């Protein structure tokens, strides 16, 4: 057989093949737009040229501390310039960025520091007390750098904590050279960051991202979010959450401006949107509620339409209408920590806007189609690994395949093998595929309710609960039942001014659902949520187990 001419004397070389890395996005933006404002933080403005210089200085300072490729640098930071600099300066030396959830307690932080083998830790003084406690519990003894935010508000709800580190962040950065030359990944498969899952049962798993995936997410986020040149992005999503869905790297693709926000508060968000011309932001549904339910004296008028990327459950029609009236266009996304954040987008078709409200709501309820950088998205039978019929009814497990799927779980080969069984990433989410290729989630595999042999989607019941104007938040879990095995139990938060009874809530559900799907029990209760706005159903399931069988 003769040699394939397209594979002969056409090998990759440095001229035609370079490893993908998200660091290239910032470098390009600094080359083209050196004077454009890259970061706004209170009264501070930082240009793209200075952003790149400071990232290089941080990288050089880390290198001077002896850190190198494969070392872990942990950060406990709010949405501040230091966090953006860490996203670039840390991987510039081949080190791996580990962003810690700022709501965690000391034992959880200590576990992550030890598991990641942290060599250096940058900590905002807001969190110095919990970090000091975590370090007293941890086995590792990293070099500690204090970040003293000069824009820390005078009216902050609590003062800065004590300095606990060996170095001040600003002095540390200034010790590095802006002429530092970053290391090029030898392989785009090299790790760029480490993110831990929420760990609702047992210890969390460390999800490892690579340079290739983070670089591709930059392009994908631009497309999925409809970003043009020089967008203005408000940081309402925590940067510790899936590396802020990779938006710290994304904005360099289009020379965008980062508007930092330490705390998600209605007045601060409206002020930023009005004063800085914000065009995009991301967040959980709780951020939408914060905006919509803000007192009138905290709201501001603005002329631009703001694109709001949201994940988790699809927003109810009333919320979507309220957001549209307030000047926001909601883009529904779906993903997991293991997929670099969003990997599915409800790509809206122009003709759907002409549908009646009910039909539009049905379209909005779907999670959507794969991200541009995701090679395949499927709903499959996890036992046979065959795709289920795309009929909008047959439930299977949602699975992903592509370059924005994690490398695997750090130091946990068994979990990685199980997650990648059959050559697909198993999400643990249950859903259906519609004939037009749009995915719709039905539940987490652990959240599906099996009552009398019938599968009940908690998401479907929650959607109905949200249709009641008096209900502001709802979560449905399985309650053990002697007769049926399980029955739906609804936890409900009421909107101020409403007074509903259990019977009234159940009757509302019966007008829209088959009777067997309706809650048998309704608990009026503050619903526990994670720091990123996800409902902690495991706590509600534990509470439901203590209730008597109906």
TrEMBL record:
CDD domains, per database record: ttLC_FACS_AEE21_like
Keyword flag Ligase: yes
InterPro entries: AMP-bd_C, AMP-bd_C_sf, AMP-dep_synth/lig_dom, ANL_N_sf
Boundaries of every AMP-binding enzyme C-terminal domain copy: 460-534
Single GO MF annotation: ligase activity
Catalytic activity: 3-(methylsulfanyl)propanoate + ATP + CoA = 3-(methylsulfanyl)propanoyl-CoA + AMP + diphosphate
EC number per UniProt: 6.2.1.44
An example Gene Ontology biological process: fatty acid metabolic process
SUPFAM superfamilies: Acetyl-CoA synthetase-like
Pfam families for the chain: AMP-binding, AMP-binding_C
Key words of the record: Fatty acid metabolism, Ligase, Lipid metabolism
Limits of the AMP-dependent synthetase/ligase domain: 26-410
Similarity comment: Belongs to the ATP-dependent AMP-binding enzyme family.
NCBIfam families reported for this sequence: PRK08162.1
Name of the featured protein: 3-methylmercaptopropionyl-CoA ligase
